[in-house]
Amino acid sequence: MFYIFSKIIGLLINPILWILTLLLCGLFFKKPPLKRKFYLSSIILILVFSNSFILNEVLRLWEPDATFSSELEESYDYGIVLSGMVWYDSETERTNFLQSSDRIWQAVRLYHEGKIKKIFITGGAAGFFEKDTIESILLKEFLIRIGIPDVDILTEEKSRNTRENAVYTAIILKKLPYENLLLITSASHMRRAKGCFDKVGLKCDTFPVDHYSGARKYNFDNLFVPNARTLFNWNAFIHEIFGIVSYKISGYI
User: Are 121 and 156 in contact (CB under 8 A)?
Assistant: First the structure.
């Protein structure tokens, strides 16, 4: 029930939907004062949620700093990679990678550098209506194709969200010997992920990747020119805030 509810709410917390709703209200309400307020509100939201500088400042406060490889222990038994980065195109028979695929690429780099001995990929169905597409399997198959030995890749294939990533990973790892773990996920997602893994008794060091924030840029484009991609990134950030609040309420972190 929580999974279905979270997916429904996730659709409703999209800034683009808020803007569209205000525009439609302005279109259908007949009183001029109300129409102006709705249109003005939609314009303000567009300007705020498409402003790269504002989003960057918010994310600089939210995202943990990047971890340098030199700061890690000599070697971790498992690098745990949270999925949510691929989808399978049945027409082209290809695995397609999304923005958060930096998670798996950084894990591959750490593996080749000897910082992690094995890659543990956690993640089940790629989408609510794609129950036959298991992300961890897709990623494992891809890693094998690029030369990583099958024996060095473990998968967890049941989880549908971050809470279940932690629960099912714990079930598997508690049957295996290990001394240390490294949790690898997007920087904006790390707070929620670390909380979930701590809750189930898996104490991990963290390696945040896929940072949406960066150095401050005071150029004209960044300060004033609306950016469509910023709208997408705001949606991802708001989804994460909703996720961490709902997880705390549910006792998952």
Answer: yes
CB atoms within 10 A of CB 92: 8
Q: In terms of pLDDT, which residue wins out, 206 or 133?
A: 206
Do 151 and 230 belong together in one domain? no
Average pLDDT over residues 119-142: 82
Res. 94 pLDDT band, cuts 50 70 90:
confident
Residues 142 and 199 in one domain: yes
Here the tokens at position 210 are 């896929």
Instruction: Read off the tokens for 77.
Output: 């038994």
Same domain, 40 and 129: no
User: Per the structure, how many domains does the chain have?
Assistant: 2
In total, the chain counts a number of residues equal to 253
Q: Do residues 86 and 205 share a domain?
A: yes
Nearest by Cα to 233 from 205, 215, 210, 200: 210
Distances (CA, A) of 176 to 3, 111, 142, 170: 28, 19, 24, 10
- Kindly state the average pLDDT of the residues 149-174: 97
pTM (2 decimals)?
A: 0.91
